[in-house]
Specification:
6 strands; six-stranded mixed β-sheet; about 210 residues; about 15% strand; binds zinc ion; about 45% helix; alpha/beta
């Protein structure tokens, strides 16, 4: 107990005195009725890109999945354990959410590593390398854009990867079916940590642009 990080305890006390005190009724109602969020956000684990902060969301509003580099693997029903796919299955078929947003972000360490030919595994199991290998083809493609700076290539792959994840979402049969009937909508976004800008994927063109005010 004593080695529990003091900063977390401080934050918790502040949460109880502030937000929880203000939203007590909402928390109690949600505890009774269960969660019914409309939107799932798939974001990176990066500590600077927290969806609840960026979208100013309260309890019960967002069903959030975070993983390294906000990737969605293809639908792969086999004997392995698929954490991301399990969350998608629950969000779509259990919670019946209406929107899935894949949100990439600037300065993503996972994406940077995918573009860095000198990056080495952090451990012998190399979970990160295997996880990021689903981006091998787009990373290879972007690496060839030598007219771009390294930073521009990284932004390009961060955004390309969002489109890749949306394509992979469509490989889940129930996602494709519900999207076809209009019951589920897939979205892409990219958050610039340094400026706070949010860029939205235009589904028709594949480009990202700033939302209108
Ligand atoms: Zn990231």
């Amino acid at each position: 107990m004593q080695d529990f990080p003091a900063s977390l305890l401080d934050g918790y006390r502040s949460f109880m005195a502030g937000r929880y005190a203000r939203e007590r009724t909402q928390y109690r109602e949600l505890a009774e009725s269960g969660q019914t969020p409309d939107t799932m956000i798939i974001a990176c684990c990066d500590s600077r890109s927290a969806p609840e902060s960026i979208f100013d969301a309260g309890p019960g509003e967002l069903f959030v999945l975070r993983n390294v580099a906000n990737l969605v693997p293809p639908f792969q029903p086999d004997a392995n354990q698929h954490g991301t796919s399990a969350a998608i299955e629950f969000a779509v078929n259990g919670l019946k959410i209406r929107n899935i947003v894949v949100m990439g972000h600037g300065r993503c360490g996972g994406i940077q590593a995918a573009l860095d030919p000198t990056s080495r595994p952090l451990a012998s199991g190399d979970f990160i390398g295997k996880w990021m290998s689903m981006l091998a083809a787009p990373a290879e493609q972007v690496s060839q854009y030598t007219a771009l700076t390294a930073k521009e290539r990284q932004t390009a792959l961060e955004r390309l990867s969002v489109r890749n994840s949306i394509a992979n979402l469509r490989s889940f049969p129930y996602v494709a079916e519900l999207e076809a009937t209009g019951e589920l909508t897939l979205h892409g976004a990219w958050f610039d940590i340094s400026s706070g800008e949010l860029w939205i994927l235009d589904k028709a063109s594949g480009d990202f642009s700033r939302p209108e005010d």
